[in-house]
Design goal:
Layout lengths: L4 E12 L2 E12 L3 E5 L6 H9 L6 E6 L2 E2 L3 H4 L2 E4 L11 H11 L4 H14 L15 H12 L6 E5 L7 H16 L3 E5 L3 H4 L4 E6 L2 E6 L1 H7 L5 H13 L1
Parallel strand pairs: 3-8, 3-9, 6-7, 7-8
Antiparallel strand pairs: 1-2, 1-4, 4-5, 9-10
Length: 243
């Protein structure tokens, strides 16, 4: 399968209240590729994603997804996005949430039921299908949010801190699923604070103080910084940045 660019953020500049939050950030992800974005809290990871999706307006630069300048409503239907906070209806069951969000993206009938069952199984929530969401733990809500994100079989999957509050064994399952999705030709973008997750990405972009400090494969980054892990790369990069 030939790889093609699915999403591209080019020379992105974003200013809030005279403070430059993104300073000339360029990132792209191809079909079949997982891009991890790492960096300290407040470094610009979430802002990069929101600018790429067109949720935030760039001061300069360009955001394109599937060869279309963002924001674009039609293209949004081909993207699965999971933000840091769970957008769930607490008074509905897990199943009712999935039906509601499935209908929003045009899924109905047998197709919707199949997708719901597959994704509940993936996040290990099948047994809780009819339980009200307000009875769920934080980790269960995160898992339901992921199931909703994957419902429409999106071509681009963007996950902002997807595994916060999720136990290690399920985190492993989720990453195996992300790899399966990438092998199906989907582009995946993940922001994470968990450095061993960054090791699982094809490319890692390190954002510090609103600048793309470095981007490369985990192996190339470890070689460049003479490090044995991405965590060590991250720590050395922070020192270099403040030197």
């Amino acid at each position: 399968m030939e790889s093609k660019t699915i999403a591209n953020l080019s020379h992105a500049v974003k200013v809030y209240d005279k403070r430059t939050v993104l300073n000339d950030v360029s990132l792209s992800v191809n079909s079949g590729q997982i891009l991890g974005i790492i960096g300290p809290s407040g470094s610009g990871k979430t802002t990069s994603i929101k600018c790429l999706l067109g949720m935030e307006k760039l001061n300069s630069g360009q955001a394109t997804i599937l060869n279309t300048t963002m924001p674009n409503r039609k293209v949004l239907g081909r993207i699965g996005y999971m933000g840091q906070s769970d957008a769930l209806y607490e008074h509905l069951s897990a199943y009712e949430n999935l039906v509601f969000f499935g209908n929003l993206i045009g899924l109905k009938g047998k197709q919707l039921e199949t997708m719901i069952d597959e994704n509940l199984q993936l996040v290990k929530l099948s047994a809780f299908k009819n339980k009200l969401v307000h009875t769920f733990s934080g980790g269960m809500k995160r898992r339901l949010s992921l199931a909703i994100t994957l419902l429409g079989n999106p071509e681009l999957i963007i996950l902002d801190e997807p595994t916060v509050g999720i136990d290690p064994s399920l985190r492993k399952d989720i990453w195996e699923q992300l790899r399966t999705l990438s092998l199906q030709g989907k582009g995946v973008i993940v922001t994470t604070h968990v450095m061993d997750e960054a090791e699982k990405c094809d490319l890692v972009g390190l954002i510090i103080d609103g600048k793309l400090f470095e981007i490369g494969t985990p192996v190339a980054l470890k070689e460049k910084f003479n490090a044995t892990s991405i965590e060590e790369v991250f720590l050395k990069a922070e020192v270099d940045n403040h030197a």
